[in-house]
Amino acid sequence: MFNKRTRIKELLQVDAASQEVTVMGWIRTFRNNQFIALNDGSCNQNLQVVAALGLLNDETMKRITTGASLKVIGELVPSLGKGQKVELKATSIEILGDCDTEKYPLQLKNRPGLEYLREIAHLRFRTNTFGAVFRIRHSLAFAIHKFFNDKGFVYLHTPVITASDAEGAGEMFRVTTLPFDNPPRTEDGHINFKEDFFGKSTNLTVSGQLEGELAAMAFSDIYTFGPTFRAENSNTTRHLAEFWMIEPEMAFYDIEDNMNLAEEFIKYIIRYAMDNNREDLEFLAQRLAEEEKQLPQDKRGELGLIEKLEFVLNNAFERITYTEAIDILLNSPAYKKKKFQYEVKWGIDLQSEHERYLVEKHFRKPVIVTGYPAVIKAFYMRINEDGKTVAAMDILAPGIGEIVGGSQREERLERLIARMQEMHVPVEEMQWYLDTRRFGSVPHAGFGLGFERMVQFVTGMTNIRDVIPFARTPKNCEF
Prior knowledge:
Layout: H1 8-11, E1 19-31, E2 35-39, E3 47-50, H2 58-63, E4 69-78, E5 86-97, H3 114-119, H4 128-150, E6 154-155, E7 161-162, E8 174-175, E9 202-204, H5 209-219, E10 221-229, E11 242-251, H6 255-276, H7 278-292, H8 305-314, E12 318-321, H9 322-330, H10 333-336, H11 352-362, E13 367-373, E14 389-397, E15 401-409, H12 413-422, H13 431-438, E16 444-450, H14 451-459
Parallel strand pairs: 3-5, 6-10, 12-13
Antiparallel strand pairs: 1-2, 1-4, 2-3, 4-5, 7-9, 8-9, 10-11, 11-16, 13-14, 14-15, 15-16
Helix pairs in contact: 4-6, 4-7, 4-14, 6-8
């Protein structure tokens, strides 16, 4: 069998040596015509392979280059060098794939920056930084499923193609098979979507929430975890056109239950990464510390990456109302010194600069804001008794602002219909959604967590394009 190999991560944890093993991986460095640093992606650490003088002929020696792939059989022995407990004394080296060093862009001497690595995203996985980021991303994804599975939630696959706009934002990617140059039209000149594949106008989903609510009315507790799409022309370090969302929906939950679950959930997945990816996190913490040394003092984080994550785990999230948040901002030195770019008054949608002030300057920890004005929130959020705010909640995190958005859903049929009419949501087309309020309606709630923003928070990466394998952004759809 060809693939009878041991992962390098497992070998580096072995205490007892002197055993024959097979490893496969890619060459990071080759020095003194004898010492090969081999990496297979299971961890950032390399395994030192020692090729005894005379083991390789001159022709093979020339092919031992950075980036080439090898299969090595040998004896695992205690290492005499510093930095590793074991090394592999090779008895056989087979080159699986050559690598032309003149053309290979990942050379140690080059040290390519993150912006350049985005241009070669198909190769950046081989760097230590992105190896750490995507192993952590994997752990966080696994932790999400484990958290909900252990709580008895049902995992629901909601549609990627939909005819509804759950958020009411209108920034959606259209899905069609109609010809662009000459689409069929109605008598009044509009595009005739009845002749399209689905017989109506359809789009890529912005959220699985509405479908999730339908399932929660049968299973009580469900969650979705899948790709969502926003045709928002935002070239920022926080936005993507394609990203992954986790959206649990829970029957018999109110807004407080919703906040409690969201806080428990965030702490759980961070703890899982801390327990299972410590080496990767420590590597990224060191990288972030070195990056911040280049920034002015007032732009540096007060806590290191590990300290920030531990702080989140060890402290209850602050809970305030939207009205309290506005009062804090209006009385802040930043507002009085006119340092906010966007205006502050009751009724605005909080901007990132406002959110970050609350968590980074005022409370210095994650904050849950509740009771937003109804006019800036979606139609499905439950109207509070004051008639002007809704039972919504956003969780704000240091460094990135909003990380979770959720609400108690409006379970009262008449109020929901009135809200839809007020916000010009087509009532007739949403009868399937309203049926959940007609047939055994119950109080229920849910939230959405943008997975990439969570990965950003845990890894300390400053650009969201560096925590998804292949970023989809305005004017960019490579790979």
